[in-house]
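lol so apparently i was supposed to do this last week
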Amino acid sequence: MTNSPFAPDCLKGRTALVTGGGSGIGFAIAQALAGAGAQVVVASRKADRVAEAANVINAIGGRAMGVVADVREPEAVQAAVANAVDTFGGLDILVANAAGNFVVPFADMSFNAWRTVIDIDLHGTFHCAKAAYPYLKASSYGGRFIAITTMRALEGWPGCAHAAAAKAGVMSLIRSLAVEWGPDGILCNTIAPGPIGGTEGVKRLYEEAGQSTGVPLGRLGRGEDIAQAALYLCSDASRFVTGTDLVVDGGRQRGQRGGE
Ligand code: HXC
Ligand code: NAP
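anyway here it is w/ hexanoyl-coenzyme A bound
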């Protein structure tokens, strides 16, 4: 588990589902939520990946389960949520983290390339929201719906027009849900990470593409930096926070604007 200033039982009794929770940022979030006492369901396409992630969490004293689901398929997401509810008795937190992305100039982007990224990132988040809503509404702790986005979606993102459009759509969706679901006690927020070292995202979008990360704090982010933000948004400390984008990027977006 990651070192955390949050109490180790601050999420005790709650159940969380993290899509794409078997690798990268999602795995860091899953570990942190488990370390704070939550029961965690890790869901993605690869059975080995989610099983291994759950094993790692269980081996260090957490309570986790891996579930295979492709977020592009509404029935699969519904089944994953039902599995979480059957196993742990409810669903209090959903972190829509699963995503697909690759660098391709717009002129070379096929219709299916566009559709694939929109399907995973935007439709996948929609499917999560639809499936989780009745359970988040019933949560005695107050439900939490968090989506992982990026401020690059709002900046103009050359080579990633598909992901930019999808993530901007997710940010808009979350704002609408925050308003619609406020009366149900469900808090809806996004976390916008900067470049996080050791992840597939940084490998594809910065290392292979030869782009500079430009982080004023002078280092790449770590998975645990994002996991701590997720802990905050899941904990009672954020009880009056909804409809916001929590930017956790070491100042990258400010550097972008100030440096041009
Ligand atoms: C051009 C590409 C491509 C590439 C795929 N396609 N990769 N086009 N350049 N590098 C095209 C294919 O040719 C195909 O179109 C269509 O996209 C679908 O590809 P498939 O391989 O059939 O899709 P699928 O098997 O469903 O895999 C989805 C995927 C894959 C998104 C393409 O890369 C994946 O599974 N990614 C998950 C992991 C990931 O992306 N992690 C990074 C997240 S980072 P045609 O026309 O040929 O049929 C992130 C943001 C980070 O989200 C933010 C800042 C750092
Ligand atoms: P990653 O390790 O590749 O994470 C993506 C996860 O999503 C994988 O576990 C993958 O598992 C899962 N996934 C992909 N397609 C799926 C699908 N159709 N259905 C279900 N699960 C699917 O990449 P990451 O860099 O940690 O990214 C995690 C999140 O952070 C993404 O939302 C990304 O946009 C965001 N983000 C990342 C950075 C960064 O610096 N890395 C910066 C800003 C935002 P399977 O292959 O098993 O399905």
